Amino acid sequence: MRIGIFDHFGWAVAVTASIDHEVADRRRIELIEPGVTPAPIHYDSKRLDVAATAALVANVRASVARATQAGLDELAHFLREPVVSISLRRWPPDFPDDIGVQMRAPYEARADAIMYRQVLAAVARTLDWHVDLYDAKHVVDRALDMLGDRADHVLNGPRSRLGPPWTNDHRVALAATIVGG
């Protein structure tokens, strides 16, 4: 099975598909524990100094790791076949790790989202899943090219077969399983 993730602050859409691109599961996964700030750099760093922000980020990352582990474990236990890969939205490989730098523009607008993706990748690797990164702007077009005549059935069919919700986030996550696989 292959999992495609479309992440948001604190939660993600997860679509799991077979090697034949049949949707086996789609769900919302919580990526952070309740009561924890979902965006420590973007929202909270404006009122904190670098040391306090770094401590907050460490606590948030730990919460994200625990919630992500629980969500992915629950999903994996639900599936009838083992997960072989997870596809996540790409982040810049040279994105700074330094919290002081992340607190400044243009980094502060993306630091929290990248944190979620990095934690998702780290947790997936502990589960021995291959991690693929995709470009959200182009992944659907790439999947359309790869699928040819089957594209509409594969990418849009789940809406009629499974019913709502089947949003663009679901479609992108499914496309990521196709391109990443």
Nearest-integer average pLDDT: 95
Distance between the termini: 10 Å
The proportion of residues in beta strands is: 15-25%
Q: What structural category characterises the helix and strand content?
A: alpha/beta
Taking Cα atoms only, what radius of gyration do you get, to the nearest Å?
17 Å
How would the global form be characterised? elongated
Instruction: Show unreliable segments.
Output: none
* Helix segment tally: 7
Order of strands in the sheet with most strands: 3-2-1-4-5
Helix fraction by DSSP (H/I, runs of at least 4):
40-55%
Largest sheet: 5 strands, mixed
How many beta-strand segments?
5
| SSE succession | EEEHHEHHEHHH
Describe what this molecule looks like in 3D:
Strand 1 (2-8) and strand 2 (11-17) form a beta hairpin. The termini are close together. Helix 5 (139-147) packs across helix 6 and helix 5 (139-147) crosses helix 7 (168-180). The chain has helices at 40-44, 50-78, 99-102, 111-126, 139-147, 151-162, 168-180; strands at 2-8, 11-17, 23-30, 85-89, 130-134. Helix content is 49%, strand content 18%. The radius of gyration is 17 Å and the shape is elongated. It has seven helices and five strands. The model has no long low-confidence stretch (mean pLDDT 95). It is of the alpha/beta class and 181 residues long. The chain has a five-stranded mixed beta sheet, with helices on both faces.
